[in-house]
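hey so i finally got around to running the thing on that chain from the lab meeting. sorry it took forever, my laptop kept dying and i had to restart like 3 times. anyway pasting the input first so we r on the same page abt which one it is
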Amino acid sequence: TSVTYQEQFEQPFFKYYLKDEGNFAPSEANIFVSGSNEWKHFEQWPPKNVETKKLYFQPQGKLGFDKVQRTDSWDEYVTDPNKPVPHQGGLIQNRTREYMVDDQRFAASRPDVMVYQTEPLTEDLTIVGPIKNFLKVSSTGTDADYVVKLIDVYPNDAASYQGKTMAGYQMMVRGEIMAGKYRNGFEKAQALTPGMVEKVNFEMPDVAHTFKKGHRIMVQVQNSWFPLAERNPQVFLAPYTATKADFRKATQRIFHDVNNATYIEFSVLKD
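ok and heres what got predicted. didnt touch it at all, straight out
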């Protein structure tokens, strides 16, 4: 990847602009696509040749392209800010860039992390551009953070890569956090109403990633990402003013029914 970038972009750029040699007329967007590990070139970003898709959360930890038709469907769990979900597994001494592609099985095994995944894909699927999260949630607290992670699940027979076992690996592709208090805009913080179904919509950063045939698409939802993000006391106040007593447990619900659908929306690159 780095060699391609140096040879096809950096070197021609400097030769053209510093030595007046050769030609440098790259495409508007030159993107490395992870998963398929290839460079693609587009005349604009996000690309035009795409199809919008929605992946809906479904009962029993499923994720699918069809909207759930049943009513009164949700997942319920308890979050404790005194036992936050870490941003990576093992002993965390400092933040490294590897956390962005770390195996997320350490989080999936926790009772305060909700996991949804597709069946194994029957063909390659390349996602390009921003990923939009549309959550329907409720809390017994007056504030909560919402973390959404998009994950590429490798099959159980995946070959090792550079000495790392990839069988069943849950590779994070993108992740983002949103404070519930800012669900209606960053101009004014607003408390959650305990027990009320709320919309929490936000975007993850742009992506260019191919989920290969046989892999699964997974989404994990959690309410802390420590120490990457400060803990939310789950009480409506500025976190930096919180005392130890303010950090309280809360019961969270994620809804996935015909009237309260939770889903992610993204663009799939056409052939």
